[in-house]
Amino acid sequence: MFDPLLFMDCLDVDNFMHCFTKQCVKILDQVAPVKSNLSIKKKVCPWTNEVTLSLKRLCRKTERLWKATNLEVHRLYLRDLVSSYNEMVENARSDYIRQLVTVNKKNPKVLFDTINSLVCSAAPVTPVFCEADSNTLLRFFTDKIKMIKEKIPPLLCGTPAVIEPVSSLWSSFKSVTLTDISALVTKMKPSSCSSDVLPCRLFVKVFDVIGPWVTKMVNLSLSTGVFPSTFKHAIVEPLLKKTGLDPTVLSNFRPISKLPLLSKILEKVVSEQLSLFLDQGNIHETFQSGFRKLHSTETALLKVSSDIMMSADSGKCTVLVLLDLSSAFDTVDHQILLRRLRDEVGLSGSVLHWFSSYLSGRSFSVTVNQIRSESADLLCGVPQGSVLSPVLFLLYLIPLGKIIQGFPDVSYHMFADDIQLYCSFKPTELQRLSSLVQCLVEIKHWLSDNTLQLNEDKTETLVIAPDDSIPGINQYLGDLGQSVKPSLRNLGVVFDKDMSLVQHCKQLTKNCFFQLRNISKLRKMVSQNDLELITHAFVSSRLDYCNSLFSCLNKKELSRLQLVQNSAARVLTRTNRRTHITPILKALHWLPVSSRINFKILVLTFRALHGQAPPYISDLIQPYTPTRALRSVDQNLLTLPHTRFRTRGDRSFQAVAPRLWNDLPLSLRSMESVDSFKKQLKTYLFAHAFA
């Protein structure tokens, strides 16, 4: 199919991509030539088929006959036909939904969109009808970044971060084989872009033919240190930030950037080699949990909440500050990023040249309703929608952690561009808050020097202390005192001044019952197995989100969450509220909420002990080593930390994890595989819950 002679003179990657695209288009024109279709098809329901359409036509024909004759026999015949038609449509819709749920079990986006389209009102369509309107959106997105850049103060020359000498250098990429590229294509999620020469599904099907040429393109780019220019143009599709927002207000839209599939394959190859280099050089920021393997919002919040609870147990107060950056990914300075990659990461040679080529010459256009705007240059920011953007942004923030470490009284944690600062102190040591205030000043200086803007309107502060101590603490916070709130949302979990998560449980319960009301509308459309899958996707996933933090919940809040699970079981099994719930949960093989919390904590503990968790989680638990030879020396026990209060230190992960772990039988504590451990642990907890 491909003519090798066309590629003989392609010594650079841009010429190679031109020939590759030309060959693909030539073959497509031969096999599937483009045809114009001027007919406008009526929008029909996706579950409509020929059988339902033929029965619908028969109903219309019979209706006309009855109106012409006005005979009772024709009316009764029409009634029977309409009843049969409605039943057939109901069955067709159920089959369609069942097939969608089965096919997209591991594709949450499609599953959520499908269910929402059935139970919720349709979102308003973006009112764009001409190229001028697309250009308006284009100018809005570009002007937004310009305005943010203009608001950033000039260089403030804060305390420079200490740059440690780079221990290793990376100057050249490793070439890849066809097997490597094939493995990447198999694992990648199907996502097409309008600039793709081949649609994603077709690309996968014909990969055996084009695979060698794709591999050659990747190796040519890696060896020459040049990123193909055809991959540098992004197609931006605006998406409403929330359902129900006014589509005529441009600020309600979030730009969703799409890049060619071949670009993502090339970036994935580079990303894997870059990650290996960063791991070997231990270049990652320890307290950065965004976009990193084994890290999550849950591990980040678990570390922060455990530190706060243990500080409260020792009689300390804590001030937690959440910082928000304005469009941080879009304001990254390319020259600063390249210097950081060279001086602090250790990139050089063709590798550094490749990243320079990757960042330069980028552009984008906005497409809405298949109408594309003109093109605009991207002069700053990491490419949105790309594979490498997250890791490049994390490397851009490396000096920030070093600056915060210069203040011993201030602890911190980051999740991508979400920054948390917290300072613990005795009520008699309020002067320590000056370190927090000064640290925030240095952070502002560093952000300004690195073309990032702190959104002070969204900066939130939480004081975790007794009520009588809060006024005195606020006096030492300076400008931060204006941002103090009784509770705040931290990575999806609502923290309050008592760290009781009461407000979070109330919001969670309300959200889950809303989802249950929608799910109940689907009971006639789907089978019980599919309904259970939907229930887990919409309700159980919410109950399980960051539930390792729920060890601090009191009995009232646990009962509130258990009521949600009980209601979900009743909706699924169609039982009334008077029926005893325990046999139903047991028949469904559902662990109660309290057992699910213990399950999550124990799995995290197992991962921490086996090197499958972030280091900051592993540091929270310590294996028990007796001072003299005892029978417990080989029991795989954990050390219980000394705590003073049951409602504070006893509810932290540091105390709960060892207590639950030591209560497990030795056979569970001695397991090596996490999958086997999870399976046996669920059996163990299930037996105890329904003993």
Automatic annotation (TrEMBL):
<dbReference type="InterPro" id="IPR000477">
    <property type="entry name" value="RT_dom"/>
</dbReference>
<dbReference type="Pfam" id="PF00078">
    <property type="entry name" value="RVT_1"/>
</dbReference>
<protein>
    <recommendedName>
        <fullName>Reverse transcriptase domain-containing protein</fullName>
    </recommendedName>
</protein>
<dbReference type="InterPro" id="IPR043502">
    <property type="entry name" value="DNA/RNA_pol_sf"/>
</dbReference>
<feature type="domain" description="Reverse transcriptase">
    <location>
        <begin position="220"/>
        <end position="495"/>
    </location>
</feature>
